[in-house]
Every structure is written in structure tokens, then in C-alpha cells.
Amino acid sequence: MNKPFDVTLDNCHKEPIHIPGSIQPHGYLLLFEPETLILKYCSENVADLMQCSLDALLEQPLDSMFDREFATMVKGLDYSKGFHEVNPQQTTPIAALAQGLNSNTTGPVTDTQAESIKTQSTYNAILSLHDDLLAIELEPALSASSSSFNPVKNLINLSLNDLAQSQDLNNVFAYSVNEIRKVTGFDRVMLYKFDADYNGEVVAEAKKLELNSFLKQHFPESDIPKQARELYVKNPIRLLADVNAKQSMLYPNDRPVDLSKVTLRSVSPIHCQYLRNMGVNASMSISIVVSGKLWGLIACHHYNPHVVPFETREVALYMGLMLSYLISLKVQADAEHRDSAVLSLNASITAKMAERIFFTDGLREETDNLMRMMNASGVAWRLEEDIECFGKTPSPDRIEALFNWATSTKLVTDTIYHTKTLGKDNPDFLDISDVASGVFILSVSSVSNLFLIWFRQEVEQTKDWGGKPEKTIEFLDDGSHRLMPRSSFRLWRENVKNQSLAWEAVELSSALKFRDTIVNYVLSKSERLELLNEALEHKVAVRTDELKKEIANKEKMQDELVEALATSEESNRELERFAFVASHDLQEPLRKIQSFGGRIQQTEATLSDRGHGYLTKMMNSAERMQALIKGVLSFSRIHRSNDEFVPLNFDDIIEDVILDLEVLVTEKKAAFSIDHIGTVFGDKNQLHRVAQNIIQNALKFTKEDVPPHIVIALNDKAEDFVTIEFKDNGVGFAKTHEQKIFGLFERLHSKAEYSGTGLGLAICKKIINRHQGKIWAESHFGQGASFFITLPTSSGAVE
């Protein structure tokens, strides 16, 4: 059964307006079982229409109540196709049942008798299908003699082409409300647009001259609660003919019946009182639906009861559909234009990041575009260690506090948080409302607390409301109470503060795409490594458990490890001694090979061409072997150098190296660009060798017909270390070889292409390790190479 719903301030949004249990009395409602067309429910006023008791009407077939033509049409309907093509159908109800169920009829009524007892009026029958009932609504039809209204003529006059030609939507709005007022005869017609929170604003109005204007005034979301908005999407037009009319109840009242699709459905008592408070006696609403959402309403008011016939409502509905279509086109065009602009800005920022060695350098150059992309007045980020701010932003410590709060409350399950009312979300941040009423926080890495935040300044505005937006509880004499809408619609002005412009959907999409760019381009590698480390740690933990089960005596295992370590250290010392002795002892037979080879070369006239070739290859191999032996001997002696670490001017070392390589530099026509490096702390001879090996490689691995250009730059300077970059424009090497090139005897080219032993960079690495520094390389094949070395600047760093 339909039980009264006790509406309070807390639950008015839950009022079951789709099952009111009654209809408006200017029409009639009959609900039939779809398969059998047997009457199951009807409005109580049907008894007067049919001149028959309600109990007698129930369980009777449809063809006993309507003319044969209409009954035949309904029986032949395919419900799956809907009712758009058949609504409305004109019919004349039979005033007494043809089967003779009227108490004054003793037998069946003949066709002739049925014709004589039809009602005198013709009705529009409007059909709709609910879950388990076929609804037939009856409304008085227009007659040619009673009205000059011609719906076809009006539809032709409402030219969609004329509307579409207007470049200004405001002109379209004004034209629409004026035409609808002409067609429907309402005293006032308004176009009511919703914002993101479903507060409404009147953007167009047509009215009688003596009426006050609601144009540009705002109305709160509570005026049209959520369940009402949902019904407006389902039913695009809604008529309330008389707010004071007594509703006709549904009979029998044995269960709730969904009347969502019924145009005669009675209206919420709260809404009726709302209209009474405005002095309105009749109203009609036409939905403006854009992309499946309620964009706004065409609200029609009349100050006397006003029944709008079905044909007239259809014309008004057509206008609403045209308006919805035009707004959809405008919204889509604006979205495409904004999408295009945002995409262009995103591409510019990404390109600049890709051009720079450190992506944040490119990002800093593009901060203006970064703010334009999100229509923001400021941006801040932490993509490394420190927070960086651009434009109008809070201080770094307030940004840190903001991010920490958002992380603990808003970013627990998501990567973004945005608001236009930060001070309302958290009053602790009201002090920064002038620059940060609106924030858009993008979490880049939850592991490293990396983020991007865009800020929007406060936009102070004055809103004119059509009455103060509030509802009240009215207590009655019997002690009960009821919810009452506001009674005053006099202009109420509100100064809106601590609020920015709202973030749009295109900005949300753009921010998420930009996050993907940042993560994929820079941070995904480090996060993947962290995940791999976690996986590795898990495997180590599992393996450790297995080892614990396999090893019974932990102390024995430790002793064995200590013994193995001692053995390993002794083996290393033996290897060093072996390398020294082997390289020293190999020198003697090699010198003899070279000596006897030289003598043979002096008598090479007696050799054949083949013998001469063999001799040349033998001497070249002996020379290469001698270089390898010297290299191995040098490699083994690096940690046994007797030279102490002292403060050195690295600029002097570079100058000495270039002077030593003067012949090769001149031959290659090489150019240098050299920064001031300053003081380092180390072994002069060994650092000279490092610089010489790197520069010599840059002069060796050059492109054909391209003079080498070598840049020696101070890449970074910390408290105890400096990082020096050696960058060339040579042939470079594949990125996959960046670690391989520092191994012993590793060569990326054949001996025929470039000479060398494959020991130079291995020696450099060992020297740098002795100085407790680092050496690495970055390159792409064909694009030159950069070698980086990190050296101490003081004795404290080495200790």
C-alpha cells in the first residue's frame, strides 16, 4: 500500500515521488494487465467518467470500456516498439459497461445501445508501459471549434535551421522561451540552467510586463532534489494544471504502483507548497538533456489554473528537444576546441622535457603552458627532493602541509584530488584562499611522495538568489510537523568568497594524461626498480628460510664464511702477484721476438711477398701483446700506487692532457669547450691518466669528415664531490653497452676499425673507485657520448 511519507529536512531527497498513489484530476488513468487487457487499477474519478462503480470496473476487459476502433488498435500493438507513433489516440469512452454490469441493466447492451451511452466528449488516449501494467491516460482533446491551435503549423514555424544560424546561444534561449510562451499561453516562461552542483540560474525569461523578473537570479539545488531530476530525464515534459486541485487517488490502494511515465502523476506536496509560496497556480517543465544529463529546464508558470492540451505540449516538447540539440552542438564544439588547445599545450611541454637531459629543466621552461593547460594561476611540484613553485602559489611549507593532508584523507585510493572550495573542505587552509581556493593535486609517486599541484585564485562574486535558499519545519496544532519550502522569493544577495572557478572535465582528463607522461617518461623506471627490489627481497627471504632449514649449525656456517673470505683475500693477493710476475716475465720473450723480427726485417729483401706479410703480422701482434702486458701490469698496480692524494687543480690536468695529445688534436682538427672545474683531491698521475684516456677515446671514435668537438663541463658540485662531464660528437654507442664498456678487454669495434687494447676504460674505472668516486657513460648510437666522473674535493670525503 502507499503509506504517507513523513518528509523532514534530512530525508526530503528520498521522497518517493514516483509512487504518489494519485493523479491530477484534469485527466483519468486506467492500468491494464498487458497480456489480457483486464483493468487492474484506475483513478477514482474514472467512476464518474464511466458512470459505474469502481468495483464493477475492475477486472473488466478494455473493449468493454472504449469504442471498437480504439480497442482493436490497442490489441494489435507491439509493445516492444514503444508508443511514440500511436500517441495520442482519440477515443470516446463508453459511459456504462456494454456487458450489462451496471446495476440498472438486466442484459447485454447492443452496439446501438453502446453508441447511445458513450460519453459526449472525445479524449486523447496516451499509452505507456510500466513493468507489469499498460497505462492509458485520458485527457480532453482539442476540438476544431474550440481552438485555433494547429500543432503542425506551429511545428513548421519553429524552424530548427533558423535557430541553428544564430551564433549566440543567448539569442537562441530568448527566442525559445518567447515561442513557448506564445504556444502554451503561460504567464511566465524561464530557461533554468544548472551548474555542477545543480544550483540553477535563470538565463532567459519571457513574461507578462507586470510580473517581476527572475532573470539572472539563482535557485538552490534543494528546489529540485535528486529524485525529481532523475524523473525529469525519464519524462522530458511535466504539467501541473492546478496546485490546489484535489488529487484523484489510485484504486485499489493495495500496493505501490510506479507512475514514473504517467504524465498525469500527482506532484509532491512540498513542490505544490513551493509554488503556492511563489503565487503560482499552474506550472509546466520541459527538460533540457545534454549527453544524457539534465542540463536545465524550461520552467513555465501561470498564476491561475491552466490545462495545456497534449497537442500543445508536444510542440513545446519539440522546442525543448531542438534546444537540447543546439546546446549539445555548442557544448561539443567548445569541448573539442578546449581539447585541441590542451593537447597542443601538452605536446609542447612533453617535447621540451624530451629535449633536456634533466626533464625538470624542460618543465621549468614550460611553466606558463603548464598553467594554461589547466587554466590555473599557479603550479608547484616535487619531482625530485625540493618543492618548486611558479606563478601565484602558497609557501612551500603550506604546500607540504596541504599535500600531507590530501594524502591521508583524499588520495588514499586515488591519484587525484580537486576542489574549488579548499577552505570549505578543510578550514585549516582558509589562510591561503586568496591564491588557493581551488587546487588540483596529482600524486605522481606515492612511494617517493612526488606530486604536481595546480592552484586557482579566489573568485569573489555576488549571487542574486530568488529568496534565501532554505527549508523549514512547520509545527501544527495537533503536535505533528511537516516540511515547508521557503515562503519568500524576494531577492536575496549573497557574497560568495573562498571559492574558485570549477575544474572542468577536459582538465581532469588532461591532468591524468600528463601524469602518464611524467610517470612513463621519468619515474616509471625507478618505481619498477623498487617493485623489482621488493620482489627480489621476497625471493631472498624465501631462500633464507630454505637455507635456515638446510643448515643445522649456524656457527659452523659463519666460520666457513670467515674462512672462505680469508681464502678469497689471499687469492686476490696471489692474483695481483701473478699479474705482476706474469706481465714482467712475458716481457723478456716478447723483446726477443721483436728483436729477431727486426733483424729479419733488415733482410726482408730475401723474403717472398707472403713471408713479408707474415712478418708484418707477427710484429704487429708482438706490439699489441706488449701493449696488453703493459696495460695489465698498469691495471694491477693501481691500488699499489705510492703517490699520495693531494689537492689538485683539475683545470691544469686538462691543460696538460691536451698538450700531451697536441699532435692528435691537430691532426683531427679538434675543438674544445672547457668549463672551470676547480680543485679536486687525488692522485695526480692517475687522474691525468683518466682524463687522457677519456679525451683520447673522444678523438679516436669520431665520425668521418666531422671534426671532433669535445665539451668538458662542471655537471654538478656538491659539498664534498664534483661531477665532471666529457661530451663528444663522435660515433657513440648503443645504450645497452653503457655498462659493458668498463669491463676488462671489452671492445665495441673491431681492431681493423679502431686500435686499442680494451683496457683503457677498465683502468679509468679502477682509478675512480680508488678515489671513492663514480664513472658512467650515456650515449645513443650515432649521437656522440657523454662520460661522467665524480671526484672528491677534500680529504674528508676520501676518509
TrEMBL record:
Q: What are the EC numbers?
A: 2.7.13.3
Q: Which SUPFAM superfamilies match?
A: ATPase domain of HSP90 chaperone/DNA topoisomerase II/histidine kinase, GAF domain-like, Homodimeric domain of signal transducing histidine kinase, PYP-like sensor domain (PAS domain)
Occurrences of domain Phytochrome chromophore attachment site (ranges)? 168-324
- What is the similarity comment for this entry? In the N-terminal section; belongs to the phytochrome family.
Enzyme class label: transferase
Q: What is this protein called?
A: histidine kinase
Q: Which residues form a coiled coil?
A: 544-574
One of the entry's Gene Ontology molecular-function terms is: ATP binding
The protein's UniProt keywords, in alphabetical order, are:
ATP-binding, Chromophore, Coiled coil, Kinase, Nucleotide-binding, Photoreceptor protein, Receptor, Sensory transduction, Transferase
Which domain of life does the protein's organism represent?
Answer: Bacteria
Q: Which reaction does it catalyse?
A: ATP + protein L-histidine = ADP + protein N-phospho-L-histidine
List the InterPro entries hit by this protein, alphabetically. BphY/WalK/GraS-like, GAF, GAF-like_dom_sf, HATPase_C_sf, HATPase_dom, His_kinase_dom, HisK_dim/P_dom, HisK_dim/P_sf
Q: From which source organism is this entry? A: Paraglaciecola mesophila
